[in-house]
Specification:
- The protein is α/β, with parallel strands linked by helices.
- It has 14 helices and eleven strands.
- The chain has three domains: 87 residues, Probable tRNA modification gtpase trme, domain 1 (Gyrase A, domain 2); 143 residues, Up-down Bundle (Four Helix Bundle (Hemerythrin (Met), subunit A)), CATH 1.20.120; 157 residues, Rossmann fold, CATH 3.40.50.
- Strands 7-8-6-9-10-11 form a six-stranded mixed β-sheet, sandwiched between helices. A five-stranded antiparallel β-sheet has the order 1-5-4-3-2.
- Strand 3 and strand 4 form a beta hairpin.
- The longest helix has 24 residues.
- The termini are close together.
């Protein structure tokens, strides 16, 4: 599909499109069959749809041409449209125009890219929730409450001889605390949002021959890594993405952690420790049928212990250990591992339907600034400072929340966001 947006969209399309209904008589939101002509020669049979401003995706006059999907025919039609007066859209320009024309707020515009990049059902659901305006609606409500609170404070600024009375001060304090709680709730979804957008960076770690590569192959469902009884077979990191109940999990198989004099294997071990430092989750694999070594978990807070080879019998050293009984060979323990991954990411969320809002890193930074301003406003109010100090902090919170939905426009901000889009969106 090729899309034209702008005041000349229909006029440019009419230079190359021929149909039984003339372009000047096309009715909006109807699909028309016709042909694309090049020098009075038919190039392709197409379907054309016209959208009249402002009832279009971009809020402008918009034409969509659906042609046959071959590379050559699509490129030739594009060249014809460009020669007729159109120009190539920049990355994300259609969505940027939709934002600038008030068709969506900035959180919805970002959700378009999340929708394109979604790798799992859960990520897709979260993107659709944001695209529908759920996050924007919540932030708009917070912003309206901030405006109301600020208006009460500024009313006292208009009468400098009066200080904020105790009853009013208590009401303002309750409102500020309520707003802080709402921001805390949104900020608590930042980690979920990062995982849904970029995947849970999960490192498979352990000594040689404990079953790390076998675990990777089992989770992927095919043989991706070489499995051998020879220690040091895996010497570089291998990364693949799997879907665990809607959570994209970026699995990273690593070289076995052991002292070695082999230069190549030493580099592999170094990369293993580097990946551990970047990991969200570490699957620490041990041989549960063998005696326990003195080496403990690398990071208990981020680790899940897998007692692999449990089908051979669990050694007495591990019987009192809090770990998942696992067997790559017999394929048991998978459900317990999936539960551990889900609990680590989603916390108390138990259903896909419970995942509604998951903010991204930009939202997080803005909301953290808003929270800091609210905390400062609360302190000023509790310390009995003049209304001007409180108003300054409330305005700061208002601006920070407004930046999330795009109420505070800066070219640098918009340029950064839409530069990450693909052409044609």
């Amino acid at each position: 599909m090729l899309r034209l947006s702008g005041p000349m969209a229909l006029a440019i399309a009419s230079k190359v499109y021929r149909g039984r209904v003339p372009t000047e008589k096309l009715r909006p939101r109807r699909v028309y069959s016709g042909e694309i002509h090049e020098s009075n020669r038919k190039l392709d049979e197409v379907l054309l749809t016209y959208f009249r401003a402002p009832l279009s995706y971009t809020g402008e006059e918009l034409v969509e041409i659906t042609c046959h999907g071959g590379i050559l025919v699509t490129r030739r039609i594009l060249e014809l449209l460009l020669s007729a007066g159109a120009r190539m859209a920049g990355p994300g320009e259609f969505t940027q125009r939709a934002f600038l024309n008030g068709k969506m707020d900035l959180t919805q515009a970002e959700a378009v890219m999340d929708l394109i990049r979604a790798q799992t059902e859960l990520a897709l659901r979260a993107a659709n929730e944001q695209l529908s305006g759920r996050l924007g609606t919540e932030l708009t409500e917070i912003r309206e409450e901030l405006l109301t609170t600020l208006a009460h404070v500024e009313a006292y600024i208009d009468f400098p001889e009066e200080s904020i009375d105790p009853d009013t001060g208590k009401t303002l304090l309750n409102r500020i605390q309520s707003l802080s709680r709402q921001l805390d709730r949104l900020l608590a979804t930042a980690d979920q949002g990062r995982v849904l957008r970029h995947g849970l960076r999960t490192v498979i770690y352990g000594k040689p021959n404990v079953g790390k590569s076998s675990l990777l192959n089992l989770l992927l469902g095919y043989d991706r890594a070489i499995v051998s009884e020879i220690p040091g077979t895996t010497r570089d990191t291998i990364e693949e993405v799997i879907n665990v109940r809607g959570i994209p999990v970026r699995l990273i198989d690593t070289a076995g952690a052991r002292p070695t004099t082999n230069e190549i294997e030493t580099e592999g071990v170094r990369r293993t420790h580097h990946e551990i430092g970047q990991a969200d989750l570490i699957l620490h694999v041990v041989d549960g049928s063998a005696p326990r070594s003195v080496v403990e978990l690398v990071d208990r807070q981020r680790s899940v212990l897998l007692l692999n080879k449990s089908d051979l019998g669990l050694h007495s050293d591990w019987k009192m250990t809090d770990g998942i009984r696992f067997s790559c060979k017999e394929r048991f323990g998978l459900e317990d591992l999936n539960n551990a991954i889900w609990d680590r990411v989603m916390g108390g969320t138990t259903r896909l339907d419970d995942v509604r809002v998951a903010i991204n890193a930009r939202h997080q930074a803005c909301l953290q600034n808003a929270k800091a301003s609210l905390d400062a406003a609360r302190s000023s109010l509790e310390e009995g400072k003049s209304p001007e100090f409180i108003a300054i902090e409330l305005r700061g919170a208002l601006d920070a929340v407004g930046e999330v939905v795009g109420r505070v426009d800066t070219e640098d901000l918009l340029g950064k966001i839409f530069s990450e889009f693909c052409i044609g969106k």
